[in-house]
Each structure stands twice: as C-alpha cells, then as structure tokens.
Amino acid sequence: MEVDSEASSAPIEVPELEAEVSDESVAEWLHYATVAPPGPARTATLDRLATIASDGELRDVEFTDELYGRLFALVQASWDDDEWGDRKMAYIVLTEASKAPEFDGEAAGRMLPKSWIPGLFRRLVSASRLNASDELPFVKSTVHWVYKAVLPARPQVRREIGAFVSRFLRTSIGHHGIAAALGVLGCIIQGFRTPMTSVHEGVLTQLLVPLHLPMGKLTETQPVIAVYHEPLVLCVGLFVKADARHFATAVHGLVDAWPEGTDANSPKEVLLMHELEMLVDMLDDPAAARPVLGPLRGLLIRGITSEYAMFTQRTLQLWSNKKFVAMYFAVMHDSTSHILFPMLLKGGERHWNTTVNKMRVSLLKLIREQRPDDFRRLCNSDAKISAEVAAAGADTDDDMEGLSSAEAAVLAKLEAIHPKEKDVAGDPARDVMAETPTLKPSLRFHDLAFGRTLGTGSFSTVKFAKHIVRGVSAAQWSEYAVKIISRKLIRRLGYEASVCREIAVLRTLAHPGLARLVASFRWRDGAYMVLEYGARGDLHSQITELGSLSEESTRFAVGEMIAALHAVHEKGFVYGDLKPENILLTEDGHVKLTDFGAVRPVTDAAREYIKSQRNVMRELRDGDWARPSAAAARPE
C-alpha cells in the first residue's frame, strides 16, 4: 500500500489513543503514525501500537488486505526517520503482528509494495555501514521474518541477495551488509531440497566461492573478508553437509582465493585455513577429499613452511581436530607424509616461534603413534638424517629399544626442538596459572619496562610491561598488564569509590582463572595496578582473527570461565561484565577473566569487606624508587 502524498500534505488530526482497540482505531493509528511528521504525538501513537501488538491485542481486529498494507507502509515510512526510537517501534509493530495466528503470509505478500524489499536491503546496508548496534538486529530479524512468513516475497528476497552480492563482487566496494545478507542466505540454503539442482549449485559457484576472492584490507590486521567470513563459511559448509561432492568445489575456491606475492603471509591465510578445518568438520565422507589431494597438500605445505607464525600455527592446529586427523590418515598420509616429514623436522632446526616448535614436535609424535612403521621408514629415508648417522659411524642395527639409528637420531632432534621447561620459580607461564598468584609486594615503578598500550578507558590506560630482573635475559622477564589510573581525574569525576572497590575485590580474589593483582602502588599522579597478562590477547580478537573455536576448545574455555565465575561468587560478588573482550587467553591457551570494574558485592560479608576498604586509594604505597622504605607499607 503506497502512502497518498496528497493526503499526507493536508493537516492531520491527532487520534484518540485511549480509544478501544478496534478495526477503525487501529487503522486510524497506523495511518497517523505513517504520515504524521516526527514529534511527541507520533511517538505516542507508535508506542500505543507497539504495546497492543506486543500484548496480542491486535488479534481483536480483522487482518485485512488494508491492515497488511498499512503495516508495511508504517515500516517503510520509518526508514526516513532520524529518530531511532520511532523506527524501533515500527519494527516491533510489524514483527509482533506477524506472530498472531490470524496473520496470513500469502495475503500479506499480495500487499507488499514492490519497493519494500529493496528499501529493506538499503536499510540493512546503512545500519551495517554505521555499525548501528541498536537497529541492525531489528533489520536482520525483519529480513529473516519476511522470507519465512511472507511466501510471495521469497523470490524477490533471493534476487535482492544475489544482486547485492554481485554488485560487491563487481565493484569490490560496499562490503557493509554482506554478513547479514549471508545470514539470510544460510537459512535459505538449509531449505534447499536434496539432491540439489543446478540452480542451487549456482549459488555456491557464482556467489559463495567468488566471495573469497577480495584481497582488500580494512586495517593492517583485518582483511575485508573477515567482515563476512563467519556466515560465508556456514553457507559453504551447508553445501558440503548436503553433498560431500561440494567439498572439492569449496577447496578449489580456497586455492583460487589464496593470497599470493605481496598479499601472502597475511591474516587472510589464517581465516582460509580456519575455513578448511570447518569444511572438514562438515564432511561426512573422508573419501570426498581424494579428488583434491593435490590442492590440499599444497595448502598444508604453504602453512608448514611459512615464516608467518600465526599461519603456521593455524595449519598445525588442524591435527588437533579429530575429523581432520581421521581424514588425513585415511586418504592423505600415504601420499603426503614423505613431503611433510622433512619440512616438519627441518633437520632439527628450531623455528623462531616456540609455539610452532611445540606443535611440530606434537605432529611428528602423532605420526609415530598412529603409523609407527611409516615413521621408521620416514626416518630411515631422510637423506640428511642418514648422512648424519653415517658420519657418526653409528651402528645401523636396532638398539635395545628396537629403534634404528636414524629413528633414534630423529627422536633426539625432536627433544632438542621442543622448548625446554624453565625452572619452576622463574617460569612466567607457570606463575600465571599457579593456584595462588605470585605477589610482588615491593615492586616499584622503576622495576617495570613499559611497552605498547593494550587499551584505554575513561580515566585509565592499560600498558604492557615486563618486570626487570638484573642478570636475567629480557626474554625471561615476567609479563604484566599494568592499569594506570589518574587519581586527580577519578576524584574530579567522582569515581574514586568505584576504583577502591575494584582494587579491594582484586586483592581478595586468587583463582587462576582470573587476571590477578600482583602489585599496586602510586607514582606521581597515577595509581598503578599490576595484573597478570594474557599473552594471546582476548577471546574476541582471537575469534576475529582465527574464526570460531572448535567444539572441544569451546567446552574447555567455557569450563574454565565457569570455574572462575564460581570463585568470584564464592567470595560474595557478582562479576557483571561477561563478554569475549573481557576473557584473556594465556600463552598456554588457558582462560582468565579480566576487568573487575563492574563487580558488585551481593552478600553482607562482601559488603562489609568493601566498606572496610573505602580508603584503599589513599593507602596505596609509594612506588618511587627513591623511597624504598615505603615498599612494604601494605601487603597486596
């Protein structure tokens, strides 16, 4: 139903909002909310409509063609509003009305204006471009709802998605909204009947596979594809799940999109390797990998030999996936192991990244465990190892443990490659997960070497720092995140009590699943909180860079999070700010909760404790090197 422009220019009488819900009153309210200019009266009318829609009172009116037309016109008119609150209520009216049993999708579809679906997609792009966190979920759910409930609109929605993606592929600009469109497309693909037709398969080959090609970057660490990669992987995975033959198409698509030349060694490679693992997870028949053994082998070689440690780690991580391991040993090992073995061993040379070294050793040990005879053959046939054994004049017979000289030499090299365990007292990785924190009660400002900024807030900055230990290599210095708070600013803004509460809470928490406080002091105008550091960043960044976690990793992370939250609750507090950005990952992959500014006491004992610590800011010890006598003024 199109709005009558002549009628909309005439004076509009404000409707009576206290009237009973009836066909006439609802029609009057919808008309007024659609054509009236923004203002309190229009907002009040929209609020009345949203209320009766949410309460189910719209069931008291007859669902006629006119009502459907007015509902669509209401939402379409709201797209021109600057006021988000009015647009939100318009969305609510439509979506809540559609939940009524009397709502007829077929009849509604007949009244859908031709310009409505394109307008909805323009709104989707606009909300995505502006990162409108309030409106975007409503627009997404409306697109989903239209496709599900208004059957006549489905062809137009499919055409709009196709045209939308095609424009992006043709121009390489305007990535905004692609992720949301792919979310809808995923629902559509789930409804495809099997066996799929050539039209269905065209969605994979003409839309989804080409979406891997863009090489642009939003930042140095974020390729354009990262914006929509997660729903893209889901869409491609649905094709692989429906028919294993699509796995080969998907792999060829990854190979064609792989960064080359100056684009190589990039975060995009990490994302694509993550996608390969997700596709293997969707694959029910490992034999479907046989037609693409060559391309798969090439991708594994790229990853293992790369100097980009993040990419190498992501490649080696494939062997932590049970389905990939099963597929590898079922169809790839025999034709691939003789190529990968020397690349993994590298004659015993160590990679510059210790995590890569650990993963190399783990994979070679996995091969020995799964295929001991093959492992021995690979050791004996390695030219460099054989030359070393011959030069050493070693006996070629098996030793007492049944190992050939070559196999014993390889195992010795694996021992040399694997990072050595440090002394327990001096191992920061162990300290950070110890049952009780390693406190530094005498730590001062000049004992710290500060590095990059990890984050900023309204009245604080968090910096990376290392604890200087004279006579010890800087590589072995313990790493910390130091929160620096401006004391003058928090007093002026009235946040001193909040900071006191945060310090007090941290001093009473000691669980290894929390980023614990190891020292606190004042220096000049700053209050310094020295906290345990998550070397692998936060969970949000990890997911953004590497893609979603495996099911096994998710269970592990959730388990550690629950244990950490339980420790907070046992002390009589609630955490209050659980989100991926506040979940840190240690070098060894453990989880730590951080940022305790939202923690609140909920038991009488906890409230009394916080009350007793209200002067903690003023009692902070002096962290100036010139006044060491103050260092032990207060225990941490």
Automatic annotation (TrEMBL):
Organism superkingdom: Eukaryota
Residues that hold ATP according to the record: K483
GO molecular function, one term: ATP binding
SMART domains per record: S_TKc
Gene3D superfamilies xref list: Leucine-rich Repeat Variant, Transferase(Phosphotransferase) domain 1
Keywords: ATP-binding, Nucleotide-binding
InterPro entries: ARM-like (IPR011989), ARM-type_fold (IPR016024), Kinase-like_dom_sf (IPR011009), PP2A_B56 (IPR002554), Prot_kinase_dom (IPR000719), Protein_kinase_ATP_BS (IPR017441), Ser/Thr_kinase_AS (IPR008271)
The Protein kinase domain, residue ranges: 448-636
The UniProt record lists the keyword rRNA-binding: no
The UniProt record lists the keyword Hydrolase: no
Record's GO cellular component terms: protein phosphatase type 2A complex
GO terms (BP aspect): signal transduction
Pfam families: B56, Pkinase
UniProt name for this protein: Protein kinase domain-containing protein
Organism: Bicosoecida sp. CB-2014
